[in-house]
Amino acid sequence: MKSPSFHNPCIQVTNIKVWLYDFEETVDKGLKEYAFVTMNINADFTPIFTFNTKAIFVSVVVEYETTSYNRNQIILWSTTITNSSTARIKSHKTLNRYSFYDITPSFNGVNGTYTLEWNVIPIVGMIKYGRADSNEEKFTCAFPNI
């Protein structure tokens, strides 16, 4: 599905902090790095709303490669838009809503690409997928070393 024509969605990462945690009482024992991402999100999904739109699920996804795994994708933030009056997202200094850590113990030397994605859930019919595909609508940056 094409990007909304009224306003191109964009994501801008303003800050990434990586902290080291020790998990002794969980399955993931040992030291692991957790990333905390601060981002600005700006998108208008009003043009997508029609008489057949029940909801739009919007998410920010980070994609990165490590030496162990070629493609890693993690959802950092999401929201569900249920009517056209709340279809404009203008969020500043938003923190990731979901935990951000990797299977490997470190993010050292890894670049991540942040993308805004959405699913249009219709009242009748198939779910449609959309993604901000152009380079201006993606944001790439490196994880800091700790």
Structure description:
- The chain has 146 residues and is an all-beta fold.
- It has one domain: Sandwich (Immunoglobulin-like), CATH 2.60.40.
- The chain has no helices and 8 strands.
- The protein has strands at residues 10-23, 30-44, 53-64, 72-81, 88-95, 111-122, 128-131, 139-142.
- Strands 3, 4, 6, 7 and 8 form a 5-stranded antiparallel β-sheet that branches. Strands 1-2-5 form a 3-stranded antiparallel β-sheet, with no helix packed on it.
- A hairpin with a 7-residue loop joins β3 (53-64) and β4 (72-81).
- It is elongated and about 50 Å long.
- The model is unreliable at 2-6 (pLDDT under 50).
Shape: elongated
Indicate the low-confidence ranges by residue numbers.
2-6
Main β-sheet, in a few words? Answer: 5 strands, antiparallel
The number of distinct structural domains comes to 1
Number of helices: 0
Subcellular location: Endoplasmic reticulum membrane
Family: Belongs to the SPCS3 family.
Protein name: Signal peptidase complex subunit 3
Keywords: Endoplasmic reticulum, Membrane, Signal-anchor, Transmembrane, Transmembrane helix
